[in-house]
Amino acid sequence: MRFVLNTGRTIRQGSYVERKNSPVYREEAASLYMNRVDMLDLEIEEGSHVRVKSDQGAVVMVAHPADGLVRGDVFVCLGPYANFLVNPETHGTGMPDFKTTVVTIEPTTDPVPTVRELMEQCGGVGYEG
Amino acid sequence: MKVEDVVCPFCGCLCDDLVVEVENNLVINVENGCTLANEKFMGDHRLKNPIRREGGSWKDVSYDAAIRETAEILLDADRPLLYGWSGTHGEAQSVGVHLAELLGAVIDNTSTVCHGPSILAIQEVGHPGCTLGQVKNRADVIVYWGANPIDAHPRHMSRYTTYADGFFVKEAFRERKVIVIDVRKTESSAVADEFVKVDRGGDYAVLSALRAIVRGKGDLIPVKVGGVTRDQLFRVADICKNAKFGAIFFGLGLTMSPGKNKNIRNAIELTEELNRHTKFTISPMRGHWNVYGSNEVFTWISGYPYAVDFARGIAFYNPGETTSVDVLRRGECDACLVVASDPGAHFPRACAEHLARIPTVQIDPHVNATTCLARLQIPVAVTGIDAEGTAYRMDGVPIRTRKLYEGTYPSDLEILGKIYALVKEAKGS
Predict the structure, then answer these.
(1) Which residues of chain A neighbour B262 with C-beta distances below 8 Å?
(2) How confident is the model at residue B85 (pLDDT cuts 50, 70, 90)?
(3) Min CA distance, A48 vs chain B (Å)?
(4) Are strands B106-109 and B308-309 parallel, antiparallel or unpaired?
(5) What are phi and psi of B364, to 5 degrees?
(6) Which residue in A83, A94, A120 is closest to B372 by CB distance?
(7) What pTM was estimated for this model as a whole?
(8) Number of domains in chain B
(9) How many CB atoms lie within 10 A of CB B187?
(10) Mutation for A interface: B38, B42, B108, B184, most A CBs within 10 A
(11) Residue B408 lies in domain
């Protein structure tokens, strides 16, 4: 199913922003919030893994219901998971479309990658310090 | 030891009323801080020493070797990018701009992915802003547009708006009207007197409709604009027009959404319209604690607030071309120095991939996503905890952050000063 991805700050993301290797940061940054009816349509429950795809790539996240979101909108806090999907085009403004990435979402049983694994996919080398 | 009047180096509120208890070079308690402040001060998870990537693993290196190699990387590059700067103090930012000039580099700060579009709009139509003290003491109507202060600036409401009693607003909670305008319900919208739910991408149209109503052209407004009913638009316009003093605060919900800088221009022009009826101001909710400072420092030295390109020997500014995301997505820079930020986590993936391809050096106290992409990381003291320096609050008020204890890490200023000296010597200037 097709959705529009919105990103932004959450207090949990902000609290762990200097501990990006921590399980809590990973849990928050990889949380995908969506409308409950959309979850029913996708036949998923809270905590289900989903594969989120855009024209930039795909990443596995964990679905959670959010009452504040209308159908068709999903929300992920800013961070490496959301940015795996965001197009770098800025339309001459310097600012990518962080709040309107078109994505498709499907259920999966694949594991959620760590931040380190995401950065390794970008060509980096993980550091566990 | 208890230290009073401590300044919090997390968000643009720069709260300066914290009481911090320090024992053996460690913060053990924080009073008055929000969750973000507590985590910032109490966190003990710093990178211990400089590290260097060698093939597929990391080795410890000395500060001197890391500084020397950083200078060499920057000197070898044809088009280096110096990015970040919002998480350090003004004195270090100043060295950064001079280093960029010496190298003929592009220097950019994190406004590029937060309020850069706000700056573009302000350059077009000006900024009718004010200090947060004015808002606290005078404003009886507060509008948060595309902002969620409870999550992003947790004490903004209690120090300056919704819950803050002021000189002319004795009982804030009763006397102030709070309007939240957003595409989704948030913790902040839950405490608003009026929540205006805008359709995704509808902000520009809603701003235009409010301008028309305030201008006396309400008969032009259709039944719904951007998902907002005509009735609600008139109600919001009335609340604003009848304010004694109104303040709009806007967030990335406007700067990152379709329209971007044009949304902000429209919001500023709505503020201008409202000033025909009453006193109204508008201000961005700045994110990083010293991102405003990076705009100030860049502007003093180069004339431009971000995205400054020194390749021509003079300062050149063209957002969309000289902005970091554009420089990286085009694969244009051949080295990058990241200071006090984390583009690995906060830039689109394509940019992170380019950072991994080129020699990237990071100066930062913590291990973050950019660490994995870098060739070298140099840990430094945290400004506001074990280093001091000047920062600018979101309303442009400079505040001196304090050093709470004498730590063992060098400051950003010391490291950047040494890199600058090496580059200057090599350039023979």
Answers:
(1) none
(2) very high
(3) 23
(4) antiparallel
(5) -165, 145
(6) A120
(7) 0.96
(8) 2
(9) 15
(10) B184
(11) 46-114+289-427
